[in-house]
Specification:
Elements: E1 2-4, H1 7-19, E2 24-29, H2 35-47, E3 50-55, H3 75-84, E4 89-91, H4 95-98, H5 116-120, H6 124-139, E5 143-147, H7 151-163, E6 169-173, H8 193-214, H9 220-234, E7 238-246, E8 259-267, E9 272-280
Parallel strand pairs: 1-4, 2-3, 2-5, 3-4, 5-6
Antiparallel strand pairs: 7-8, 8-9
Subunit structure: Homodimer.
Active site: 37
GO molecular function, one term: ATP binding
Length: 281
């Protein structure tokens, strides 16, 4: 595995591999790799000649009340994990390398962002779309891999690729979970032992919603109330949102039919956790 910090060097390496006819799979991350990232890397490894993983904690997607400096980082461990999975290139640029000057152009996401996490994080997905636009130009991937746990991000990336005609195939990866169902996340390390036990309720509430829908309940508000009651009764977390929208459009629906998502976010003392479930009826 080769670790690269310079944009031009990364581009030159990729262009050389493309001239050799090799396909490029790309897994963009902010590091502190866990099993969710590993599953995406393995999928990329199975489907491409070359695998590139980027590690870059992107300051543009952190709001004024979000602590960019506190985001967990462990480059040495990330490098070991990536190399063990057969990654060819680890791209880990500095902020100064990615943003040497104040940007004169940015990407503004106009749809799919005024709900769910985007509602309370204005500008977050503009930052995501801007850095991905840069990374797609640097890495020139044939396929880009994103975890379905952050389903709103997947929806935004789908729009970015489609609207800007990037020659990139978006490949979503299923949410990877702990044994009790909690979605794996870098932020789980911030849960207290009691909160960690309670957090399993997030996935359990979505499973309860699935059972209710399969039994014939089609009213979104009924399902929302079911999930709310479970989380409020079984955890100390504060519900940020429990929402149901069409997917990937993320538009309101009055009846549970077609392709839709149930998504939730819950705040614990030092961690905000998200989860979701996508249906196709």
């Amino acid at each position: 595995m080769k670790t690269i910090e310079n944009i031009k060097e990364m581009q030159n390496e990729i262009l050389a591999r493309k001239r050799e006819g090799m396909s490029i799979g790309f897994v963009p991350t902010m590091g502190f790799l866990h099993e969710g990232h590993m599953s995406l890397i393995r999928k990329a490894r199975a489907e491409n000649d070359i695998v590139v993983v980027s590690i870059f904690v992107n300051p543009l997607q952190f709001g004024p009340n979000e602590d960019y400096e506190a985001y967990p980082r462990d480059m040495a461990q990330d490098s070991k994990l990536a190399e063990a999975e057969g990654v060819d290139y680890l791209f880990s640029p500095s902020v100064a390398e990615m943003y040497p000057n104040e940007p004169s152009v940015g990407v503004v996401v106009q749809k799919r962002t005024s709900v769910l996490c985007g509602k309370s994080r204005p500008g977050h997905f503009d930052g995501v779309a801007t850095v991905l636009t840069k990374l797609f130009h640097i890495v020139l991937p044939d396929r880009a891999y994103f975890g379905q746990k952050d389903a709103q991000q997947v929806a935004v990336v789908e729009g970015l690729i489609s609207d800007f005609n990037f020659p990139v195939e978006l490949v979503p990866g299923e949410t990877v979970r702990e044994e009790d169902g909690l979605a794996k996340s870098s932020r789980n390390v911030f849960l207290t032992p009691d909160e960690r036990k309670e957090a399993a309720c997030l996935h359990l509430s979505l499973e309860a919603a699935r059972a209710a829908i399969e039994s014939g309940k089609k009213n979104p508000e009924t399902i929302r109330e079911l999930i709310t009651t479970m989380i409020e009764n079984q955890t100390s977390g504060i519900i940020d949102y429990i929402e149901i929208y069409s997917y990937p459009e993320l538009e309101p629906i009055e009846e549970l039919k077609g392709r839709f998502i149930i998504a939730l976010a819950v705040r614990f003392s030092k961690a905000r956790l998200i989860d979701n479930m996508i249906f196709n009826l």
